[in-house]
Specification:
Distance between the termini: 24 Å
Strand content: 15-25%
Number of helices: 12
Mean pLDDT: 88
Shape: flat
Structural class: alpha+beta
């Protein structure tokens, strides 16, 4: 697990800690300040919001809103300019505790600019910035256009849009039906070829000639997507790693979103595949059905780490972020792999509930 992975995990857990918090009314303040915004304009805006809050009839709500705005303004004033990837601030009274949280070292630029006063903190834009290792290639194609994209975490990134030159179904004057049909077919083939080449450029690693994404999803209208996939337009490495084809109505960015929505179950299953495989390997070792040896529990795993005996460290994503950092660093120091395991499937729940969230596949018995 890289330093970036650990930073993303820490950010994710910090956001999760406040995601479900609720105020007694619309008195929790969320600020999204994107890169390039003027700090002083935000200071002035918060001063204005503070003044307007004096009109709130409920004394308790008025006091809590103004306290949140006063704290938010004080936090913003600590910066001479907006940090490189933006600034996110959460302030407000939750039960008997005043919450104040600042994110000024975001992994990616935040695009939203917003001030929100609500009964909960708005965390979705920050959660969308947390990027796991998994990236999936997206291709949508119709006769009219094609779009290449990538799903990274929950973010859909558009890589390239391709306009089609395929003529409409209405025949131009003076052309025979057969000739017109041949021209349309030729133009379709050129269009499919362009989309396939763009996908290869986006998803194949030039250095080792391997797929640079976890898998590929392809969408289009029923006839079009079948034609595109079943013929020889697509590079064999992309075809072999296509997770599924899906019926979508559009070949543009809207089509990318439709594709991701329709492939939700397929994506979830694929993301669990590696964790499932490692957990199955661990369970087989635990039963003595197969090598290599395994161990579990924080104390026993730490002992194995000290001996340099860990091959793969399995950590439940529900563990404390600091503990994940500590154990991951020990594993990396001896060249061991680290796998964070979700609780969204049965084996992941067993790791958390039965084995204390920590297990390891060993290089040798200790």
């Amino acid at each position: 697990m890289s330093d970036d992975d650990r930073a993303d995990l820490r950010l994710k857990k910090e956001v999760e800690d406040i995601r479900d918090l609720e105020g007694q009314g619309t008195e929790l303040v969320t600020l999204f300040i994107p890169p390039g915004d003027n700090i002083q304009s935000w200071v002035r805006r918060l001063s204005s919001e503070y003044s307007e809050a004096s009109n709130i009839k409920s004394k308790r709500t008025r006091t809590n809103v103004q306290s949140a705005l006063k704290k938010a303004k004080k936090l913003v004033q600590q910066y001479r300019e907006v940090p490189e990837n933006g600034l996110v601030i959460y302030t407000g009274q939750v039960d008997d505790e005043f919450v104040s949280l600042v994110f000024d070292d975001l992994p990616h630029p935040i695009s939203e600019s917003n001030y929100i006063c609500d009964d909960h903190f708005h965390t979705e834009p920050v959660e969308a910035l947390v990027t796991p290792d998994e990236a999936y290639g997206l291709v949508v194609v119709t006769r009219d256009q094609g779009t290449i994209g990538m799903l990274v975490g929950d973010r859909i990134e558009t890589i390239r849009e391709i306009e089609s030159l395929v003529m409409g179904k209405t025949r131009a004057g003076g052309q025979s039906a057969q000739r017109f049909k041949r021209l349309r077919e030729k133009q379709k083939e050129e269009h499919f070829k362009d989309v396939a080449e763009a996908a290869a450029d986006a998803f194949l690693d030039d250095e080792n000639e391997q797929l640079a994404v976890e898998g590929v999803l392809i969408g289009g209208t029923d006839i079009t997507v079948d034609d595109f996939v079943n013929n020889d337009w697509i590079d064999y490495r992309i075809k072999e790693n296509t997770l599924g084809t899906f019926n979508v109505a559009h070949g543009d960015q809207t089509g990318l979103k439709q594709l991701v929505d329709k492939a939700e179950d397929v994506l979830q299953a694929d993301k669990q595949r590696q964790s499932r495989s490692l957990m199955n390997r661990f369970m087989q070792g635990l039963r003595g059905d197969a090598d290599p040896p395994v161990t579990y529990g924080e104390e026993e795993v730490e002992r194995a780490l000290e001996y340099g005996a860990v091959d793969t460290l399995l950590l439940s994503e529900t563990l404390d972020a600091d503990r994940i950092d500590e154990l991951s660093e020990q594993a990396e120091n001896i060249g061991a792999d680290v796998q964070l395991v979700s609780t969204s499937f049965e084996e992941g729940q067993q790791l958390r509930n039965v084995f204390g969230g920590v297990a390891a596949v060993l290089r040798y018995e200790i």
